[in-house]
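A note on notation is needed here, since sequence and fold are reported together in a single record. The reader may check this reading against the record printed directly beneath this paragraph.
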Amino acid sequence: MSNVVPVTARRGQRGGIQWWIWRPGEGRVLSAGRHQRALAGGWRSAEQRRSANCSSDRRWVSASLAETDSRSRKRRLRFQQLTWCSFPLPIMAPGLPSTTRLARLCQKLNRLKPLEGSSMETSLQRCLSTLDLTLLGVGGMVGSGLYVLTGTVAKQMAGPAVLVSFGVAAVASLLAALCYAEFGARVPRTGSAYLFTYVSMGELWAFLIGWNVLLEYLVGGAAVARAWSSYLDSIFSHRIRNFTEAHVGVWQVPFLAHYPDFLATGIIILASAMVSCGARISSWLNHIFSTISLVIILFIIIMGFILAQPHNWSPEEGGFSPFGFSGILAGTATCFFAFVGFDVIAASCEEARNPKRAVPIAIAISLGLVASAYILVSTVLTLMVPWHSLDPDSALADAFYRRGYSWAGFIVAAGSICAMNTVLLLNLFSGPRIIYAMATDGLFFQAFAHVHPRTQVPVVGILVFGVLMAFMALLLDLEALVQFLSIGTLLAYTFVATSIIVLRFQKAPPSSSTGQASPGPVAKEYNSFQDHIQLVGTEQASSSKPGQLRPSLKPYLGFLSGCNTEAAVTWALGFLVTSAITLSCVLVFGNSALHLPNWSYILLLLLSAIIFVLSLLVLGAHQQQRRQDTFQVPLVPLTPALSILLNICLMLNLSYLTWLRFSIWLLIGLVVYFGYGIWHSKENQQEAATTRYVVFPNGSLEETVQAVQPPSQALVQEPRLTEQLTSP
């Protein structure tokens, strides 16, 4: 990879420009005068260029700034191409200041993926309707949790008030779902949280989010396959496990399962083969399993209300909320993860026919259906039998067995298997598409960007992803890794909510997609330098832009109008996230864990809450992007800020071992990014192919105009430019 060597300029003694140009092979820079003498003396002649291994496509650029017509005391700018040779270098040239190298590195880590105008063009097949996306979301959320989680929360945490826990968890999940809906409609590309972070937060953060989501899908799919195998094995009185242990033996090795699960491996390989046949086949299978699952859920609800006994909610049985308000909150934290899975809709938006309309509708309908199913099933479950007598492992089947309807247990088992089939299919459907998005952007190995010409799916990613998932289900002990799924999901939710705030207060991107997107001020870009250059002093029409202070509030917030608008929004967002973390720590750990005096604890609680509210007010005082053609989250920044606070609180409830495993996985991801992704990123390649024309009117840098010069043009102009530079 070749990096364009940076050039700096400073004002000369007589109003001219002194250029500092990097000289290859010497580890130092040359001033303008020495550079001209070097050219006159034959430096970089054809023979020397060949000996220096300069390739034929290297670009030469030169610029000179001359003052003429001194009699009329008017200045005329004469532009030539200022050229420098682009040759392999590290991130910054040796000998330049370390602070400059650090700034350049930070710029690379935070570069953004531009929002392309032709976002509907894709190599994948756009074949999914609103109904397809809705059933994908239903299948992703209604898994084994409906058949297992309801009984566990009811017996151990909330009692009959489990329905309240599911309701609160559904509202909390809605906050994150709205953020996904806006991004899915505005950026209809595969990648989900990875892509949303890339276009708003930066490249490094996007890679780490994508890296965590990949592990989430891998471990989640393997765990579901194991649960599917165990559930089917229990129907046949554990004959499959006994046969495997008798012929293979029992393993007592750390991090490995007690026995190899060949049944789980087989179902993953079969599901991978189905998913690789195309999005249409995957959607068709999901339709079948999701429809069967919904019909069985409807059967459970109807039969449950028929067999309901209101006495089970009476004070004699412990009442409606035996564990109190704290039990409802604990149940809400657990029930929140039952709604994880709606992000599959955002991951599939590149294959939707009309993503701007279909993605928000599908997310809203699927979340409403699943929330209703969880609330109604938990209601009938605690009305059929007393909550304290439930079997946490198979609550629904055991409840029908206790009421004398043992035949209904087989129907419940069929519904559970169908629900787990949909979750497994969707893990294999979504995971490879995240890899495909990362590989397309150059952050992951290019082999995963290959799309089969007939099925139009990332077949390499599906096969590799399926093999890794099958290997994990066959050999590894997944019980210790299941909790790891929670932190990856919550971190993705947090970054997506933060990205909504960032994108709302960003200026609208330029129409051209040639230049580099960066978090800083957007430079003007032109298709042609000669045709579109504008001299200093041209007045631009002032208009209200996102990130500026609202005109109605300027008389009252004058201290903010004098600040840089981007800096004010950035600082407010930083204080918002910091205060959310502090407030979450205070609320989760409490005074007993923090070991603070009562007055210090109350003061910290009040300060963090006040800073959180003030940050919201400062953000709300600035103008936002308003789009009428796509869905937008209501009540920004309040809605994403509440989602951030809730996600951080749930992450802090996880064990320290989960955080330790998460840190190790992040370190592995950083090695992959700095070893491959940062060098092969498409944004990095566009930087290397970009020439910059710099205008210094009256000694100050007023405007930077970016254009891409074809290598052929650069080679043709090279001899002429050398002559002009050496001529007086």
Q: What stands out?
A: Confidence is low (pLDDT under 50) at residues 1-96, 510-543, 691-728. The radius of gyration is 30 Å. The beta strands are 8-11, 17-23, 28-30, 691-695, 703-707. The longest strand covers residues 17-23.
